Amino acid sequence: MVDIGDEAPDFTVPKAGGEAYNDLEAFTLSDAVADGPTVLAFYPAAFTSGCTAEMCAFRDSMGLFDDLDAQVYGVSVDLPFSQNVWIQQEAINFPMLSDWNHEVIHAYDVVLDDMYGTIEVAQRSVFVVDTDGVVTYKWVRDGENPDFDTLVSETGKAVEEATLASD
Fold first, then answer.
1. Does the residue 116 lie in any domain?
2. What is the CATH number of the domain that holds 128?
3. CA-CA distances (angstroms) from residue 155 to 69, 83, 104, 152?
4. Residue of 51, 57, 128, 159 marked catalytic
5. What is the pLDDT of residue 161?
């Protein structure tokens, strides 16, 4: 499993921007981290209650991440077209990354292989990657869903620490 201090596995996947159903472009992690700390918030599936609550908690706290020049991306195995619809439906103000072929969840070892007893999805988890491409924070769900506002706040503190360390 990817751990704090490890180089973040690089990947290229479709990015859903949410402006339209077909608002898609390629996203490569190694290109993105040069622009500032990067938050990868893995979630099992769009349109589900827990995932909507989690991503909306990030949405409602984007000012915190903007102040730190941090980028936030949701990551799931959903197709990018459905992610775009979900972004619009929930007024999510950050992009989603589509790991439709499941390579990223395997690279980060955050595979939940039995959602509803039948489907492989992302395990709810958060990684903060600094501008050197190193993981500086990791949280992986263990047990029930956390309080999402607290999770987002802790993620923001981790981003701030990563920012201070790189200055």
1. yes
2. 3.40.30.10
3. 14, 22, 20, 5
4. 51
5. 85
